[in-house]
Amino acid sequence: MTSTRRVHQQPGYILHHRPFRDTSQILDIVTRDHGKIAVVARGSRGAKSRLAGVLRPFLPLQVSWVSKSDLGTLTGAEAIGPPIGMLGDAIFSAFYVNELLLHFLHRYDPQPEIFALYEEVMGALIGTVDVAASLRSFELELLRLLGYAVNLDHASGSTEPLDGERYYQYQMEKGPVTVDRTEGALVFSGSILMGIAEQCFEDTEVLRAANRLLREIIGFHLGGKELKSRKVLMELHRGRIAPSKNGKE
């Protein structure tokens, strides 16, 4: 990128922020029409910054910036709606969604469908107690939009639909491969795989299998990189993070 690019009032959400110099920060933002961008918000951590309460995750924004390289400079930001309110597991799940987009999206690669999917899953996480089902649906659709669609229609090397009575091992480069055993790494019955494809997540067995399958598939496409938000959520569920003295986690 050599020419100067100026963008005004683009819908977006902050995915991640990190300090930069004394009072500034670098923001990773997912935008509707420009994909993921990275910008410096100069002076935004200063005590008198008018952006201090605006530049935070899960707040729908209109952002403006100027850039001559991959790292631009924020020139304006304003909230265009109330913050997306979530509690408990939902807030950790929302950070997990942010982290997925942060790792999977390339800078300045417009993905309006993924932006719409992001808004959809954030809306689904508001007030829900069933975050797992919302996340599995999001992961399946995200992988499809990224070109990594999960094949749950037919066995590898065949055009025939899966047999609900048979067992298959999901292999990353092939999809379901017929096996003669009922247990093992990523071995599922055909009925379970069909349930995942149809997103029958009210069935707890299908939901657990979807979590196991999608965790491995996402890990494969991320090159084995561990997602911090997923680790925190798992540790919370396992009781490894003790409550603080005031009784809150």
Question: What key phrases describe this protein's structure?
Answer:
single chain; 249 residues; alpha+beta; OB fold (Dihydrolipoamide Acetyltransferase, E2P); de novo design (two linked rop proteins); 2 domains; 5-stranded mixed β-barrel; 33% helix; elongated
The beta-strand count equals 8
| CATH level 1 name of the largest domain | Mainly Alpha
N/C terminus separation:
44 Å
Count of DSSP-assigned helices: 6
Word description of this protein:
The chain has 249 residues and is an alpha+beta fold. The chain contains six helices and eight strands. The chain has two domains: 5-79, OB fold (Dihydrolipoamide Acetyltransferase, E2P) (Beta Barrel), CATH 2.40.50; 89-237, de novo design (two linked rop proteins). 33% of the residues lie in helices and 24% in strands. The strands form two sheets. It has a five-stranded mixed beta barrel with strand order 1-2-3-5-4. The model is unreliable at 240-249 (pLDDT under 50).
